[in-house]
Amino acid sequence: MKILDCTLRDGGYYTNWNFDKRITDLYFKSLNDLPVDYLEVGYRCSPGNDYYGEYYYCPPYVLDRIKSISNKKLVIILDEKNIKKEEVNELLRPCVGVISMIRFAIDPKNFKRALILAEEVKKMGFEVGFNVMYMSTWKDESDFLESIKYVEGITDYFYMVDSFGGVFPKDVKDTIDIVRSKTNVPLGFHGHNNLELALVNSLTALENGVEIIDATITGMGRGAGNLKTELLLTVLNSTKGLEVDFNALSQISGAFELLQKEFEWGTNIPYMVSGANSLPQKEVMEWVSKRYYSYNSIIRALHNKKEGVKDNLKFDILKHENSSKEVLIIGGGESVIAHIKALIVYLEANPEITIIHASSKNAKPFINLKNEQIFCLVGNEGHRLEDVFSEYVDFKGLCVLPPYPREMGTYVPVSVESRTYELENVSFSNLKVYSHTSLAIQTALNLGVDNILITGYDGYSGDKIAEKEQELFIENEGLFQDGIAKGVDFYSLTPSKYKSLKAKSVYGLLI
Length: 511
Known about the structure:
- The protein is of the alpha/beta class.
- Helices cover 38% and strands 15% of the residues.
- The protein is built from 19 helices and 16 strands.
- The strands form two sheets. Strands 1-2-3-4-5-6-7-8 form an eight-stranded parallel barrel. The chain has an eight-stranded parallel beta sheet with strand order 13-12-11-10-9-14-15-16, covered by helices on one side.
- The model has no long low-confidence stretch (mean pLDDT 92).
């Protein structure tokens, strides 16, 4: 059997295919001393409009550098749906003599088109691998199953890819039997680890005649990740006597463990649910990376997808009987509590100001004020609201949701359902995001405000902020600027690093 390590290609979904040169040099040198046959180093793609790093495009100088360091057979993968037949020669000409195998990521529905592309690649002298995705759904792809026989003479490896990470050992064996009835081409297996079955599924594949297995260092890969190379090698060392240099293995796995702390790949409940129900990984990965999506929100979204439901709850549109010249939007930042006395005194003196809680994190001190209060329910806010008001039976506020249908599904505490509404749209911004901030600003604009006062939008300190925080900061800045473009002024009453917000100290308002 052979092992293909695809860490840089599959791990690129977390790093945008950028890797520090020190870690890639260590990767190639460490793998030189390990019983791995192929290294899949990235994609080759035509230029696009989005930014992706060097291992997404693998320009010739990158391939030449890898070849000078690595003693392994090198592999790149082409995404079949993005490649035209007339592009193949130009894309792969720089790879001749450097790359040993070209693999195709293939949707079963496009299998026949992939055969045509592969014929062009085979003419150029490369080994060819077919990574056919969505293995758990093949039973419904009769046209694809009948076309497998045409791979003879075109592909060197036919891979079964558990894209959703939800197959079991029996499924692996049954699928091998089906494919073996169609072709004698050597088989491969690429297992995802949503249900933590990547190892047992890979061992089952080997026991049933599969000849090549994919793995990645620390399991780094899209969504829940893959079979860990270090785990596979350790098991094969123990059960088959495979010689493994554990010094080299621990050195490179240790380096990637540091990356894992930063990017947090690996399985969790949303990935488990999506894997068990053969639901898309791309969306789950995006949802998990968003700071304001709770696991409960994600599970509801996955349940709705499984059931084919747009959303699980619908409410009346929030219509305001009275206008408001000023509102105070309260975020979740520490500045709210730091300046709480001044904020309370100001609001008590101005009961006509509507309070909009973008997050209910800081809502408790404002409970007894006479001001109208509106709570934005997005992400995990329904559960947070329950925690904040757990001891208060008589809820006097209003709750507002994003427009129906909501991608993440809807959770509203039973105790506030009768006072919950939704927005008809969020139209003030072209960003088209349904976040705490966008809901709060749209609600304020619907009130006909002249000014929007802000507190609890502190921004972030430090030389280096986390990627999620930076993304949220940029998104909020964009939303503030779009709100300003509607002719409304934004003032922060407490310290803020947001440049779009004018300063207006709450203490100055108390003179």
